[in-house]
Design goal:
Length: 269
């Protein structure tokens, strides 16, 4: 797998026997490393034993005591997908766009090596890693069939929705870094664009990869039928003169808050 020079090798988990049938690429958050996502990787391995799970290191490594740290950028030591120095709201989207080709190239290389397609691939990310996963799915619509975005959003509000990618957002109601209101606004926007997206909000949880959100992500992966498949199935039944089955009820408020409200959505909790 291609990586930046002098960077650690990614963590790669493959099935004990047989060829991988699914690919999950997990992208850690800023000021972190792949070990941040080990709990998610373990849950995926347990739920999907024929899946390959890859956890790469991000592209920018800010070492403790480096010139960047010494220049007053304390707290940014660790790996970042984009250069964190002088990072602001005005240049965030541009820096994410600049980093996307390297990430997309990594995913493509794995897919080619193992004969896996975009529809067999899921991108998942936490915080800044979620932004990278979301933006990559827009830059290359055939890159992944699913995106799991934990505590993160697009670098910029989307002007279109990926036609063949299902987007799952998982968020803490008490997140002080990425407002849940902004996530809800994004879901409204995706709905206007005919996007295929769900949202789960966990109460009393902040900006963290909480176990409750990980468990709900597995539920989403196991029970959510892509909207395009659901609509195709309903259309086929109607052409045959059969009564379509009622759609599963929309998500409900619980400890894990509201989810999609689209009655067409074939998801269950």
């Amino acid at each position: 797998m291609a990586k930046q020079p002098d960077f650690p090798d990614p963590f790669i988990f493959i099935p004990k026997t047989g060829k991988p049938e699914l690919l999950f690429v997990l992208l850690h958050g800023e000021s972190a490393d792949p070990r941040q996502l080990f709990p998610l990787a373990e849950a995926i391995k347990q739920a999907f034993p024929r899946a390959m799970v890859v956890l790469p290191y991000a592209f920018e490594n800010i070492q403790a005591g480096s010139q960047a740290s010494a220049a007053g950028w304390n707290g940014i030591a660790g790996y970042h997908w984009i250069n964190p120095v002088d990072l602001s709201e005005s240049n965030y989207a541009e820096r994410v766009a600049q980093a996307l080709p390297a990430l997309i190239g990594q995913v493509r290389q794995i897919q080619a090596a193992y004969g896996l397609t975009g529809q067999q691939t899921a991108l998942a990310g936490f915080s800044q890693g979620a932004s990278m996963a979301l933006e990559a799915s827009h830059a290359r619509p055939d890159l992944a069939g699913r995106v799991l975005a934990f505590s993160g959003l697009y670098a910029a509000l989307p002007s279109s929705a990926p036609p063949t990618t299902m987007l799952h957002f998982f968020h803490g109601a008490n997140d002080q870094q990425v407002s849940v209101d902004d996530v809800e606004s994004t879901l409204v926007r995706l709905g206007e664009l005919q996007g295929d997206a769900t949202l789960d909000v966990a109460s009393r949880i902040g900006h963290e990869l909480h176990d409750a959100l990980i468990k709900q992500a597995i539920v989403r992966l196991q029970t959510c039928v892509p909207l395009r498949n659901w609509e195709d199935a309903l259309g086929s039944l109607q052409e045959q003169g059969e009564a379509p089955a009622a759609a599963p009820p929309p998500g409900q408020d619980l400890a894990l808050g509201h989810v999609n409200r689209d009655p067409r959505r074939a998801c269950s909790r």
